[in-house]
Write a structure and sequence with these properties.
The protein has helices at 6-26, 32-39, 43-56, 63-71, 75-82, 88-97. It is mainly α. Helix 2 (32-39) packs across helix 6 and helix 3 packs across helix 4. It is globular, with a radius of gyration of 16 Å. The N and C termini lie far apart (34 Å).
């Protein structure tokens, strides 16, 4: 791996984060429960991590504000437009693998 200075590394990480968020906004067909069942995190986790990292820098961001950054709209609006009721199978898989999310 090439040697990368800290500022460039931060820029690359930020760009990758922005691409991930854009990808998740475009893939509203992918439900959070599916992400949790397959990857162990979802959009809400990502928004919580964002809020927690902001707090380490002294920046106060509420959960709704962090979720809007990730979802691209208020969470309630996204839910109304895109969230489907989880199936019994999805719920059972989540319950079996849930590690506290």
């Amino acid at each position: 791996m090439p040697k990368i200075d800290a500022a460039t590394q931060t820029e690359l990480e930020a760009a990758a984060f922005r691409r991930l968020v854009q990808h998740l906004r475009e893939r509203s067909d992918v439900q959070n429960i599916d992400m949790m069942n397959l990857a162990g995190f979802c959009r809400n986790c990502l928004s919580r991590w964002y809020r927690e990292e902001a707090a380490t820098k002294g920046v106060a961001i509420t959960d709704p504000e962090a979720r809007e950054i990730v979802y691209g709209m208020p969470y309630k609006e996204w839910q109304a437009l895109h969230q489907k009721e989880a199936t019994a199978e999805q719920k059972a898989k989540f319950a079996a693998s849930n590690t506290g999310h």
